């Protein structure tokens, strides 16, 4: 099966050097034969620095920036991509995009949570944007997985620490991750989701797949496999629901009109 997946990051990939290269290598490794995952990031200049967390820790700014995800999804469909995959933990505009697109739409956070439920009874998420705790708990509730969520906690280091680890010695950071994972395991988690994609890629690069017998989820692999699966199902005639306010797509002509209106909005 040949297919193309549009990867959409919440970072400006051109700003991130070694992480961008590591992400590309990881996606190439996890994709099935015949699958092409085409990486896309936010527009250069979206943020004041190479770190999006100063903005996306605020739900209002996250919402405004998520409009880039909507426009990218519409572009992916126009260009004939087979699936659109949101590659960031908070799943910005996931529900809205599923009501606008006819191709499968996959969310990184939702995909990780669903897979965690197949591997264990309860999962925890470790993050370096601590404000995500409330947002992710709310997402788990909306996905119907609230009872399976053990906790969301601060991993104890930040985005820039992870970026530096790509070009230096990741050993101390890995040990801090293991300590944070053990705290969640002690609370009852039997699957750990390593939060944001930069941390996920680093852990996979360093071969960290479990802590004390508890799996450390490769969320990006789950995300890619879910996209491939949904494309395969759609090709067999099994498609997403198209009923109700969250799923019924508006006419394409009206989508184009509204997008044109807001492009000219003062």
Automatic annotation (TrEMBL):
Coiled coil ranges: none
InterPro entries registered for this protein in UniProt: Asp/Glu/hydantoin_racemase, Hydantoin_racemase-like, Iso_Racemase_Enz_sf
Family membership noted in the UniProt record: Belongs to the HyuE racemase family.
Protein's name according to its UniProt entry: Aspartate/glutamate racemase family protein
Species for this entry: Pigmentiphaga soli
């Amino acid at each position: 099966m040949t297919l193309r997946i549009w990867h959409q990051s919440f970072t400006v990939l051109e700003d991130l050097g070694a992480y961008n290269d590591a992400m590309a290598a990881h996606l190439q490794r996890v994709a099935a034969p015949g699958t092409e995952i085409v990486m896309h990031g936010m527009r250069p200049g979206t943020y004041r620095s190479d770190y999006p967390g100063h903005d996306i820790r605020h739900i209002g700014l996250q919402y405004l920036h998520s409009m880039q995800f909507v426009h990218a999804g519409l572009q992916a469909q126009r260009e004939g991509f087979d699936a659109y995959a949101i590659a960031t933990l908070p799943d910005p505009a996931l529900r809205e995009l599923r009501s606008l697109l006819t191709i499968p739409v996959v969310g990184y956070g939702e995909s990780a949570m669903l897979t965690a439920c197949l591997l264990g009874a309860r999962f925890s998420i470790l993050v370096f944007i601590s404000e995500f705790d409330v947002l992710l708990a709310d997402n788990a509730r909306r996905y119907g997985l609230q009872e399976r969520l053990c906790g969301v906690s601060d991993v104890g280091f930040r985005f820039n620490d992870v970026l530096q680890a790509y070009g230096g010695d990741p050993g101390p950071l890995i040990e801090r991750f293991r300590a944070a994972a053990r705290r969640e395991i002690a609370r009852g988690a039997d699957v750990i989701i390593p939060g944001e994609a930069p941390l996920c890629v680093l852990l996979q690069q360093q071969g960290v797949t479990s802590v004390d017998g508890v799996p450390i989820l490769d969320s990006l692999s789950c995300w890619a496999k879910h996209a491939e699966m949904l494309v395969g199902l759609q090709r067999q005639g099994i498609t997403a629901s198209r009923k109700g306010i969250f799923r019924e797509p508006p006419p394409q002509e009206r989508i184009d009109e509204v997008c044109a209106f807001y492009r000219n909005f003062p």
